[in-house]
Amino acid sequence: MSGTSMDGIDAVLVSFPHNTVQIHASQTVPYPDQIRHRILAASQNQATPDEIGELDTLVGKLFAQAAEEVIQASGFNRATIVGIGSHGQTIRHQPSGTAPFSTQIGNPSVVSEITKITTVADFRRRDLAAGGQGAPLVPAFHKAFFSSDSENRCILNLGGIANITWLPASPLVPVTGFDTGPANALMDAWCMDQTGLPFDSDGHWAGEGSVNRDLLDDMLSDAYFPRVPPKSTGKERFNLEWVKTLVSRHPGTPPEDIQRTLLQLTVSSIARQLPESTDLRIYVCGGGARNPLLIRELAEAVPHARLSLTSELGIDPQMVEPVAFAWLAKQTIEGRPGNLPDVTGAAGFRILGAIYPA
Questions:
Q1: What are 212-233's pLDDT values in tens digits?
Q2: φ, ψ for residue 356, nearest 5 deg
Q3: Does the pLDDT value for residue 323 go beyond 90?
Q4: pTM score, two decimals?
Q5: Is the Cβ–Cβ distance between 17 and 2 less than 8 Å?
Q6: 161: closest CA among 256, 312, 266?
Q7: Which of 202, 238, 280, 315 could in theory staple to 305 by disulfide, Cβ–Cβ 3.0 to 4.6 A?
């Protein structure tokens, strides 16, 4: 799995005995700087068809490398591995309009050829073809492994984009989920632009600044936030150009104040879109779970809820999404649906992905 943060590839070797999750090994392969910059350019329509084609192959090789490294770390015989779920790297996600689409690179034929393991990929387009958003797809996994009949739960993923899954205790209430907006994407982009660092470690730089309330209100006025689900978004909308356009309306704002305001944007946009419940437990996963300032501000913004990490439910916060796509690959191979129509808006349950045999 590589998400909208575009920082690297998380790989996990996992089995699902008796409807449980057992992680045998995990590995993260960072993108080389040059590849990361090229992916970012492609995501902003700054790449030619030739460049995108080359990236498709190069990223496929990196996904294969990540799979090989996690297999070696596990000590497992590859003949015992049923399949690889390869999400790929999203470079464009446009689920609305007259011709919706979602494009991931990381050629799965290359992954299958190098690893000699059946690979499942291209998970999003079947849901889109059925009228859905193609995202988020992880709520089906959240429902299967994180639901409780005694506790209302919300799974909050803080990746480049934030998404929530509402898991009500009552089986009569449907599971819902959607992208709330930016999580780390804008903070990372502004940090790179201003400091040359790929992210604000532990939120230290943001902690040096103060929230510009006028700028925050301007950001929160974006039409995406009040839109009724199903909905999904990405760097196509929330990117550095979006930040700079809004910042230009508030001249003289110090860079660290902008960083702090972007962190507050993440907090406020999530808090405004959480389910209305006086009995809510939020379990956090994704890279943002490692930002103590972000977590502290979230806890203050939703005092009626209790915040925990998904590790309390048995899965490390950094591994939830790669485990989810391993499970989605399992669903595909077994001929089972992987989407939730109540989440994506698709016309019905669909078997997701395409299978690339070993």
A1: 999 999 999 999 999 999 999 9
A2: -115, 100
A3: yes
A4: 0.95
A5: no
A6: 266
A7: 280
